[in-house]
Predict the structure.
Amino acid sequence: MHPLGSREKGTTILAMGNEAIVRGGLEAGIGFFTTYPGTPASEIGVEYMALRSEFPHLYVEFSINEHVAAHAAQGASWANIRAMTAMKHVGMNVAAEVLHFAGYTGVKAGFVVVIGSDPGATSSTSEQDDRWYSLHTHLPILEPATIQEAKDFTALAFELSERYNLPVIINAPSKLCHNIGSLSLGSLPATFRVKGTFERNPSRYINLFAGSVANHRAGMTSARRLADDAPSLGLNRVLSGAGRTGFISSSINYLYLMEALSILGVSDAPVMKIGMSYPLNAGEIAAFARGLERIYVVEDLEGFLEYQIKRLLYDENLRTEIVGKDIFPDYGELDVDLVTGILKDELARPLPANVQRTAALAAELTADIPPRQGAYCTGCPHRSTLYSIVKATERKVIFAGDIGCYTLSCLPPFRAFDWVTCMNCGTGIAHGIMHTNQDEEVIAYVGDSTFFHSGLPNLINAVQNGTSMVLVILDNKWVAMTGHQPSPTTARGVRGDTMKPVDLKGLLKSIGVTYVRTVSPHNIKQTIVTLHDALAAKSGVRVIIAEEECALQAERRATFSPPEYEVYYQIEPERCQKCNECYVDFGCPAIRSREAGGDFHYYIEESTCIRCGACHDLCLNSAILRTEIKRPGREAAS
Amino acid sequence: MIRYDIVICGIGGQGVISLGTILKLAAIEEGVSVMGAERRGGAQREGSVTSNIRYRGLSPGEAHDERAMATSGLIPAAGADMMIAMEPLEALRHAALLNERSVVIVNDFPLIPVSVRIGERAYPARDEIYARLRRFTPHVHVVDIDGLSKQNFNSLRQVNTVSLGLASALGALPVSEESILATVKQRFPDFETNKRAFDLGRSASGAATHGR
Ligand code: SF4
Ligand code: SF4
């Protein structure tokens, strides 16, 4: 049984913030879930998918992008089934069009939008603060701080959504999504609503001319009604205290603030914890501010709470000083140490001696540590493709990369990226550059899932406009970076289950791509030859499909159906010229260096080698040997 | 009040996350509250990975105090009671979490980062790393956990359980040995082997090199 599906109310389980959100949905009777996977929100979809066997009424979809996912959830809500869609913060840019209308149309059954935010951009290309959208979408935002709140707020969000006729947003930063700890379970509904009923509602659903104006107004009216009721919802709380200096915070920043205050020995300051950061209730904020001379607002990024609070207090004729982004950074991610460091100066409190001592030592002793950035997994087909691209072009091209595991090619040893912004920025921007009479060729590369997310319009546009470009589609059959959700090209699950993949070649043909080649990336020589050929062809869009399953998935598959032959690769020290191709330029982590008698030699760590064969193919000195042994007992077993 | 913070650090693929999960599940088993965020890259390997384990609970008769119990997912500077480092350089990378009383367990098995592999940076001498760690805290235990696992079990699969044995012997964890073993039993196959690995870790704690 899945622990998130437990019917034992009151038991405590170990859960991740994302899993707590999943449970909150179940406790609210969710029936429909869609997502385009994106860190830090990816596990939500994975868990709902896993729960389907126990909750067969659940519809769960890994959609092609966030716009599609949000529309689908809106449809389910209109058909009176409680629905959730989850995305990472930048997914909101893709879903924004849908969600701007969702306030106009209202909901039928509860509609919850989960946004995994990423202050500090630890797994993203931007750190935008999606809360600002609500100033014009008017969608309420709940900001849980703890794993428990992640569940409780999610369940409540469905109720609020129905009561106020608006989709409700749960904003969870990565440090909550990936916080793992105790979660006390509530009860599940005795039955789940299984059958939808779509009821027509033309005045809200048909947004035209005066109708859309009326609906704009209706959405804002709903939000105002919620603001009026905010103090009675129990989402915002005050820890009363003494003194004329108070604090307001939300989300995990509330916990950072509380820890910082306790480190600084401040034990009685008034603190307001905001659970619903939009809409705010002016009276509730004013009641806290009254009598205080100064309030520190502690939050990530550009100061969404601070902006609203200043405005509301101005209208309330209160002149309490509000200090936020003038002392806290409006970029990057806050943590306890940052908040402590800033407040110690503001409150004129000393840091405890042990903290001072450690800080001094750390400054002296840890500054020169070599960085450890991620690298491709052992046997990753992207490493092979990127190695071939770098070799074939000698870097004399414009590199138009994109978002996925292969974004790692920004880093050494490949450094084959000239820009990275949003999804499908590679082909999109390259197309513009190539129509400015460039001398250089461009090589764009994009993964299968990113390509299908929003790359098709770019490609059709490039084909129609005669753009000169080599596009390599890194088809590894999975949305690998977010934990291996299926992509449109997934044909087989790791346990042998079959799916209906898109015919990528047929698709390319039908949109007018005449040059299409397929390569096996670990076949390095073939890949380099094909790249040379594509570059030499000079005009139009030339597509190379680098087709090889993600190594992690291939490895998993092999545990379920082991291959008939066991293959080994070894470096023959007598033949190895230490040319460094495999160790540095290619950089497979299984290829290591060992000191021996004042000298060193390269070897393959057998326990981590995945037997992809790429090193064997790329070694120009034939120093990497391949041995094949038939697995004993295979016939008997099968 | 029960307060005990452990940071586990290492590299993607070393089992940092599953080690953290065992230590957290042991708290659930024991009725102690636990939380702690994970820092991990994408699905890829080779990057730095950390797991924070923050135990909280009330002593018998103690009243709940919201201010004192507020606990974020990340251990603040100088806040770690214990560090389990699966790699020497990663121990030093996170040394700002240590204080004079912190117990540090380091797996004496360096893994070379890409920046060193391509010759842009140098990997500090191991003795130098350990000497620096000892400036933060005298309680540094250097153990070749990979070696122990390989010698005794002919695989790296027992590294995590050996580490658990070391941690339970060297730290004042608020979760008992029994609770840890109970979760190991639930989560890992072949309990017999894991129990041996755990005991190996416990006995290795006495032999851990203080002087290296
Ligand atoms: S590519 Fe071949 S010759 Fe070069 S270092 Fe590797 S094994 Fe040795
Ligand atoms: S075959 Fe070579 S390149 Fe492939 S995983 Fe093994 S050592 Fe690495």
Summary: The longest helix of chain B spans residues 191-207. The domain at 2-208 of chain B is CATH 3.40.920.10 (Pyruvate-ferredoxin Oxidoreductase; domain 3). Chain B has a mean pLDDT of 91.
